[in-house]
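@channel sequence for tomorrow's demo:
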Amino acid sequence: MNGFIALLGSGEYLPAMDDVDRHLLANCGANGRTPRVVCLPTAAGREGDASVNRWSRMGVEHFTRLGAHVEAVPVIDAESANDLNHASAVEDAELIYFSGGDPGYLHRTMKDSLVWQAAQKALARGAVYAGCSAGAMIMGREIPDFRTMGLRTIPAFGLAPFAFVLPHFDAIPLFAKPLASALRSRLKEGEIMVGVDENTAIVGKLNEEWTVLGKSKAHVFMKEESKSYAAGEKFSLGK
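C-alpha cells (generated this afternoon):
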C-alpha cells in the first residue's frame, strides 16, 4: 500500500475534523486535479435507511464544502459490496472514507468483496484510506469483542501496523477501562495497540512515522510501556 492511512477516533464529516480532512485531500495523489472522494456508510448497514442516508448525506455535504468531488457509495450488505459499479467508483477514488458503526459487520461485509479488492487497488496506487471508529478498527490485526471485555477478538484486515485500534479512547467509561488492560495483556513482544481520542486522527504509512492530527491525543501501548502523543506530534513504530 502506497497511500496514507488515517484512523479516526470519532468526528467523521464534522467541522472539528476539517483540518484533518484538508490534510488528507492535499496528500491523496490527485496531482492538481479536484480530488475524488467516496464515502461508504457500510458500518451502519444494519441500522436502517435513515442512518445510512444520514451518513451518506453528511459525507457528501462535508467534502463538497472542502472542494472535492464526492460520491456516497451505498455499500450496505454483501450484495452491494459485490456490485461492479460500486467497486469501480471505489477503485477510481483518491480518498476512500468509511464512517462508523459496527466494526464486525463492516469487516464481514468487506471481506473478499469486489469493493474491498477495489479499495486495495486504489491504495496501492496511492489513494488515502480514512476510517472512523469502526472504519479504523478493521485496519488493525484484530477487533475486540466488547461483549467479552477483550477476552475474545475477531480477526481483522491487519493493513495498519497495530494489533488493536481503539477509537473514542478518551470517552471510554470507567467500567470499560479493563477492556484496554485485557487487550494490552494479549500483546506479544513488539506488538502495538493504539487508542485514538475523539475528534482526533493518526495518519501515516507502513514503515514510516505517524502523525497525530485533530483536537486531542493518541495513546500507543506496548506490552510493558506506553506513551501519549498530542496533536502535531509524530511517533515511530520502530519498524
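heads up for whoever presents: The longest helix spans residues 49-65.
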